[in-house]
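Quick one:
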Amino acid sequence: MTMGGKNDLELEEKLMCQFGPLIGGADLRQALGFRSAVTFRRAVRQGKLPVRVFELEGRKGWFALTTDIVEWLTRVSVASMAVAMPGDL
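Output:
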C-alpha cells in the first residue's frame, strides 16, 4: 500500500472481505466510477483505466487486484484533499 494510514488499511480489509483478491464485472466498474458497461469497455479499449485490468482464462470479463483498487482510491482521495485544502497540507 503506497499511502499508508489506518483508513487505507480499513478500506483494504473491507474490500478484501467483500470481494477477495480480485474484483470483476459490475463491481469493478462501480469501484472505478463507471456508470455503464459501455463506458467501461471503451476505457479498456483506449487504455484509459487508472488500474491494471486483465482477463482470466475460462472467465468472462475484466478483473483487477483489490489492492490496486485500494491504492488508486487512496491516491485519488489524497489528491482531492490537496486540491480542496492547498494550504493545509
